Amino acid sequence: MRCTSLLFVVKALRLRDLVLSEDELLTVEDEVSPIFEAPLILKRHDGGPIVLFKKIKGHDMQAVGNVVGSRKRLLKWLRARDYGEAYQRLIDALERPTKASEVGGFSDHYRKLNGGLTKLPVFKYYEKDAGRYVTSSVVVAEFDDVCNVSIHRLLVLSHDKVAIRIVPRHLYALYARAKERGVDLPVAVVIGCHPLITVAAASSPPFGVNELWVANRLLDCKMKVVATPKHGILVPADAEIVVEGVVKTDELVDEGPFADITGTYDAVRKQPVLSIEAVYVKDDALYQAILPASAEHRLLMGFPKEAELWMSLRKVLPGLRGVRLTEGGCGWLHAVVAIDKMTEGDAKTAIMAAFGAHPSLKHVVVVDGDVNIEDPRDVEWAIATRFQADRGLVVVKGARGSSLDPSVDPETLLTCKVGVDATRPLKSDVRRFERARIPGEDL
Description:
Elements: E1 2-3, H1 7-12, E2 25-32, H2 37-44, E3 50-56, E4 62-65, H3 71-77, H4 83-95, E5 101-102, H5 106-109, E6 111-112, E7 133-134, E8 137-143, E9 146-151, E10 154-158, E11 161-164, H6 170-181, E12 185-191, H7 195-202, H8 211-218, E13 224-227, E14 234-236, E15 241-255, E16 258-259, E17 265-266, E18 269-281, E19 286-289, H9 295-316, E20 320-325, E21 334-339, H10 346-357, E22 363-368, H11 376-386, H12 389-392, E23 393-400, E24 414-422
Parallel strand pairs: 2-3, 4-19, 5-13, 21-22, 22-24
Antiparallel strand pairs: 1-2, 3-4, 6-18, 7-10, 8-9, 8-12, 10-11, 11-18, 12-15, 13-14, 15-18, 16-17, 20-21, 23-24
């Protein structure tokens, strides 16, 4: 393995407008297997550079992973100087999506790939996964003039069939409508696209808002879309791979086990079959993989929710300093909120507002603005020195939890939520809580 120029990966991911440093790409020159070997390399570089695989055993196509593998890189994609600016850019795009320009000639942008899914270097990630999974699948579905764009894992069953995991949200609503009509749901699956398209697909605008238009806003309205040949579904013209097919509304198969964001295996469920009609690629197409339970997985899933938390908390807390969905909380189940407390109830207001804005949250810790929410040790220090359970603990029993949490009741998904007020009492002697510092230590 060696580091090399980013020109190849920038070209392949259609990111010519972005400037990255040399240490942000690791090229793997040796041939590696898509089964466990390539995922292990991604795991070893989790949170680090983009990893480019030049040779995947049994395949002509190259592959890339860890594209959105760090917060620093995500801020760069968003062209934001800090998290507040990044959150605002995403929220603005969600509130003011802008239709992209449509271009003609699908065949001018993509060519048909003979052999279907067998030609794609799909990875098998973890030991007990049910098989090879496509994890960077941005699914575009249109039905009744409603378009939904969201990310769904695909378990490869054959060269022209996959099982698609659909949670009861927007894509499921379109699937249910199609099922009521007795027809299949046409979809296009995009594999390998601009990171901001992926971020938009991972966000949660109201039902009926086209996430591609959200992405176009994030891309300063420069995105072009093109209609797929059979179903006329609009997809980015600059993606790597486009798969066209239908979600069968009369066929279910076992899907799972699969290692999800918590690093534990998700349950086996009956899920719909996506029947593949055609696979289209760029001439120099690059297959994109997202390692499950990685920093990239946590960022793509958690960052849009973090932005929602920031916006919700800011409405009720003028002294809000920051919010993070933590690494240890799988980027989903735990939040740390920093505030400059103005009244004694502010921390509990933050706890309840956070639970309301993100129902999957299990634990919330609120700290003072002098605590570094990026540092778990500093947060633990605040709990150790500023928290008293008899006055600062909030316990919510029998609340809705997350299906991703293996400790929730598997039938009801009920959980116990805990909030921790680790802030200084306003009327206390501030000298008791003052941090000891050595002159010059912050320089």
